[in-house]
Write a structure and sequence with these properties.
4-stranded mixed beta sheet; 7-stranded mixed beta sheet; putative 2-phosphosulfolactate phosphatase; 234 residues
Length: 234
């Protein structure tokens, strides 16, 4: 199994993901939100690129559609919920459809169209993601959402952990960047000793969202692996 990494949504090239097995990571916080919502009984998540599109889709059925997401890490005006995974309890999402737009994560998902499979990964489901990748037995491209088109330490560290999970079960052939991600994780298995340098981590901390950070940095608290196909995540 070969494993490569794309460092941000802006760096996705169609030929890099076409017919590949892709894992999209935006651990702070979009893919943590998606994984949590699905784990808590959300029927499906529809990721979109713009606020306007999200509102238009949600207006079709406000009784069963929820609006969630962020701009600048803050809740969008007129939306039901923010980009905090703690918002998406079973009481809120069970049986509902979440319409979601974020600054980085939903862009990375949409940018990965053309892949054979698109899995949603985060720290909270990393081991389960690795096991699902082993089932498919294809070469893997891990897409880091990044932060506003730039490399992001948090997603890179999460990539390293998923690679570490894979290496426990199979032989993997890593590109240079994938080797680097795994090495960094191996030196910082506690997560916090390195993720504290991430600009996005510090932005969320500045907003007083420490509980979100604590939650998103937990390893393997769910075995759910959401998958994006035909416009929806289930």
């Amino acid at each position: 199994m070969k494993v490569d990494i794309i460092i941000s949504a802006d760096d996705i090239k169609s030929e890099k993901v076409k017919d590949k097995l892709v894992v999209v990571i935006d651990m702070l916080r979009a893919t943590s939100v998606i994984t949590t919502a699905v784990s808590n009984g959300c029927e499906k998540v529809i990721p979109v690129l713009t606020v306007e599109e999200a509102k238009e889709i949600a207006s079709r059925d406000r009784s069963s559609f929820l609006l969630g997401g962020e701009r600048g890490a803050l809740k969008i005006e007129g939306f039901d919920y923010s980009n905090s995974p703690l918002d998406y309890t079973s009481e809120v999402v069970k049986g509902k459809t979440l319409i979601m737009t974020t600054s980085n994560g939903t862009r990375a998902i949409k940018g990965s169209l053309g892949a054979k499979h698109i899995l949603i990964g985060a720290m909270i489901n990393a081991e389960a993601v690795a096991k699902k990748l082993l089932e498919y037995k294809d070469d893997v491209v891990i897409v880091n959402a990044g932060t506003y088109g730039q490399f992001s330490i948090d997603d890179f560290l999460c990539s390293g952990y998923i690679i570490d999970c894979l290496k426990r079960h199979t032989e993997v052939e890593l590109t240079d960047i994938a080797t680097t991600a795994h090495y960094i994780y191996s030196q910082h298995e506690d997560i916090y000793s390195f993720i504290k340098f991430a600009s996005h981590y510090n932005r969320i901390q500045e907003l007083g969202l420490q509980e979100d950070l604590n939650y998103c940095c937990k390893k393997d608290i769910t075995k759910v692996v959401p998958e994006y196909a035909e416009g929806v995540i289930k």
